[in-house]
Amino acid sequence: MPAVLGVRDQDDRDRRLGIVSTGPRPIAQGGDRSEALPRTGVLFFSTPGCGTCRSVRAHIADLDDRADAPIVEVAAEANRAATARFEVRAAPTLIALRNGEEVARRIGPASSSVIEQIRDAAVDDSMLRLRTVSGGLIALRLVVALLLAAVGVLTTATSLWVIGAAIAIWAVVPLASMAHESRSR
């Protein structure tokens, strides 16, 4: 299990998840404990009763330990100062930090591979840009592209379907780059 620091809210009774403090300075409830957060690693903001947070927590448990980029769980409701400092608006939120600076963010569900990519972004510049494009954003780009292309074809407005094709390419490039990177590993 990776290094997971943090606290679980008292009313979160799901003890079977095995969240333990493995670092030298666990984050305490209440007050500003931002100084206890790692300068390089991943912050996992969660809330009690969040089913998606439990899913992300299970994926984190499947990952190997990495001392260079620990994953730190922060109970968002109990650590309001850290939540405000990192402008967290929803749970779960994963934030990759490198030398105290945010380099990547993921809001919502995340698979083990996505969590690993976010953790890699905390320590490696090359992992950063294309992998922060979410699947929802790519899907939105594709939907807009298809709509513009369809309207362009139906109305014989060449400019609309050309713009639609350009947006479709813009949506597919990050997918192709990620597929190429995963094949080259």
3D structure, described in words:
The protein is an alpha/beta fold and 185 residues long. The chain contains 5 helices and 5 strands, in the order ββαβαββααα. Helix 1 (51-62) links the parallel strand 2 and strand 3 (71-75). The longest helix is centred in the last third of the chain and has 27 residues, at 158-184. The radius of gyration is 19 Å and the shape is elongated. The model is unreliable at 1-31 (pLDDT under 50).
Notable traits:
185 residues; disordered N terminus; 5 strands; Glutaredoxin; 5-stranded mixed beta sheet; 2 domains; 42% helix; alpha/beta
Secondary structure elements and their pairing?
Layout: E1 4-5, E2 41-46, H1 51-62, E3 71-75, H2 80-85, E4 93-98, E5 101-107, H3 112-123, H4 135-154, H5 158-184
Parallel strand pairs: 1-3, 2-3
Antiparallel strand pairs: 2-4, 4-5
Summarize the structure.
This protein has helices at 51-62, 80-85, 112-123, 135-154, 158-184; strands at residues 4-5, 41-46, 71-75, 93-98, 101-107. The chain is of the alpha/beta class and 185 residues long.
- Fourth-level CATH superfamily of the largest domain: Glutaredoxin
**CATH third-level topology of the largest domain:** Glutaredoxin
Strands side by side in the biggest sheet = 1-3-2-4-5
> In total, how many beta strands?
5
Order of helices and strands: EEHEHEEHHH
Q: How much is the average pLDDT?
A: 76
Q: What structural class should be given to the helix and strand makeup?
A: alpha/beta
Largest sheet: 5 strands, mixed
Strand content: 5-15%
Number of helices: 5
CATH class of the largest domain: Alpha Beta
| Head-to-tail CA distance between termini | 23 Å
**How many domains would you count in the coordinates?**
2
Shape: elongated
List unreliable stretches of 5+ residues: 1-31
* Architecture (CATH level 2) name of the largest domain: 3-Layer(aba) Sandwich
Q: Tell me roughly what share of residues is in helical segments.
A: 40-55%
Global Rg: 19 Å
